[in-house]
Input
Amino acid sequence: MIRSFFYIVLLILITRTAYAESEPSIQSTTFTDGYTLDIGVFYANSDSNFIATNPKTGGTFPVDFEDELLLAEAQYLPYFEFTFSFNQRHNIYIDWKSLDRKADTETVSQDFILEDIDGKDYLIETGSKLNTLLNIDILRIGYGYDIWQGTNYAVGVSLGLHAMFVETAFKGTIGICVPDSTLCSNSVATPEIIDETITAPLPDIGLYGSYEFYPGWIFDAHAHYFSIKYDDVDGSLVDVRLGVEAKICDNWSLKLAYNYYDVDVTIEKTRNIGNIEQRTFDYNINYSFTGPMFAVSYVF
Output
């Protein structure tokens, strides 16, 4: 499905480009410097887990944030994008997506150890009550260049950087363990323990295009992709969007799009014990959205 969406948008842009090159070269007079702010909502589906240790066997297994710890799997989320267009062909854009969730688990179904959270190991026992928070923010900064332009179309390429900020917090009946041993204290009511993980910048490349098929009505599309392994981060992203923009006055527009957006990131955590680097705690976060997206756009 991911490849299909990417190839469809690529085909649309290539087809439009070929058509544009067959037309007489006309320098557009409609592209001017300006700022655009989009504010909207989209519907997200999430699947995230972390690797925990079995206190009895010492082995590891995944704990699912949604199934085991009851974080919401689907919800409506805000979306913001800011674009600066200048010198007719150049565009700088910044967008931000946020997924903040928390939930109460009245009875944990299995024993596990959270390793290397703010420098300590914590024991969660079967039957414990646990409050869990997982906040994910994705910031994207990029640059786009319009390779082909006409009176009613533009096709370009883009380069960007993504950064994913992950924050987890646990509060409830929790015990403290001695690192690299099987010794754990009795579980007691524990204040919130917080672990923050920030990924390295992850690059993406993309294609985009727009076509005004009727005065005030614009079809636009883009496709962004990255896949990289950097240090302790292994991630990939696919972002494909097909949409229509309708101008309601000189500065205001409404945008409706169909978006496929998928981020899959694994973050490995290690610590040094006795001059030996040991792997302790992994996050695996899959953050996806397939469906409609609505935004209000203002140009100034």
User: Anything to note?
Assistant: Residues 1-30 have pLDDT under 50 and may be disordered. Helices lie at 2-22. The CA atoms of residues 83 and 253 lie 14 Å apart.
